[in-house]
């Protein structure tokens, strides 16, 4: 697909969720669209799973943010205090570092990952932060510090010490980070990738309860997430394309959260 056509497809999908007349949104979305045109990803086309993953995480983060704001307005204003369109942008860009991996084919490796592969994949938060900071000078733009947080800290929401790159105490992180991480978890569970099989939203919630996510995630966010049927794939016009991602090697299928 020619560059312009692929960009246009993605831009249209993104426009369903965020106002592109806003100059900061425009700048952030441009960063994402440019990334999708890097050679490896351009060849994969607009329906590549990482493109869909990024847009869906943004969409769900903004939906969840809205629901929390409706159900717990005082909590939202005091502890979250962030624009809904910024939540979309944070989700859209959280994995931006993956687009700059030296060997992006690692993203689609269906064999067992080596320790070195895992270390490399786990560089993506830091790579993303450097790209946003040095190549795209995002600090002139709205909520730039929060967007950087969503890139560097989205794998820190884990049991204390188990997250990366820093192993921070998740209770010390800004509370909106839990919205981004939960959206990332949810979408990773329900979507298909070369190395995972999707499960339903209800199953993803059951697993989260079993794993005691509620010990880490603030109650108003976790409860709102559990109580709301997001049916996230049903709401998107390109659901069929999304679900058509091939699962390449059934022997290596496993259920996972987004560990890397
Ligand atoms: Fe990530
Ligand atoms: Fe992700």
What can you tell me about this protein's structure?
By secondary structure, this protein is mostly helical. It has a single domain, classed as Hypothetical protein af1432 (Orthogonal Bundle). It is built from 13 helices and no strands. It has helices at residues 3-15, 23-36, 39-44, 49-71, 73-80, 84-93, 115-121, 124-135, 144-152, 176-190, 201-210, 219-227, 239-243. Helix 1 (3-15) packs across helix 2 (23-36) and helix 6 packs parallel to helix 9. The longest helix is centred in the first third of the chain and has 23 residues, at 49-71. It is globular, with a radius of gyration of 17 Å. The two termini are 29 Å apart. The structure holds fe (ii) ion (2 copies). One fe (ii) ion binds next to helix 4.
């Amino acid at each position: 697909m020619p560059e312009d056509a692929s960009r246009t497809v993605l831009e249209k999908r993104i426009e369903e969720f965020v106002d592109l007349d806003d100059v900061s949104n425009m700048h952030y979305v441009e960063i994402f669209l440019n990334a999708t045109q890097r050679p490896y990803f351009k060849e994969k086309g607009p329906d590549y799973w990482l493109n869909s993953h990024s847009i869906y995480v943004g969409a769900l983060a903004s939906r969840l943010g809205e629901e929390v704001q409706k159900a717990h307005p005082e909590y939202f204003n005091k502890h979250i205090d962030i624009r809904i369109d910024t939540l979309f942008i944070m989700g859209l860009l959280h994995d931006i570092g993956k687009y700059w991996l030296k060997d992006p084919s690692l993203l689609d490796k269906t064999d067992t990952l080596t320790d070195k592969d895992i270390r490399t994949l786990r560089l993506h938060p830091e790579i993303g932060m450097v790209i946003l900071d040095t190549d795209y000078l995002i600090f002139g733009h709205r909520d730039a510090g929060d967007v950087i947080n969503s890139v560097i800290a989205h794998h820190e929401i884990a049991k204390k010490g188990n997250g990366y790159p820093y192993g921070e105490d998740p209770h010390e992180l800004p509370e909106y980070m839990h919205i981004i991480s939960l959206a990332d978890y949810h979408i990773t569970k329900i979507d298909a990738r070369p190395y995972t099989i999707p499960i339903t939203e209800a199953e993803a919630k059951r697993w989260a309860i079993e794993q005691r996510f509620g010990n880490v995630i603030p109650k108003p966010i976790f409860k709102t997430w559990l109580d709301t049927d997001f049916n996230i794939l049903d709401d998107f016009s390109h659901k069929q394309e999304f679900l058509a991602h091939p699962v390449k090697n059934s022997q290596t299928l496993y259920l996972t959260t987004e560990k890397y």
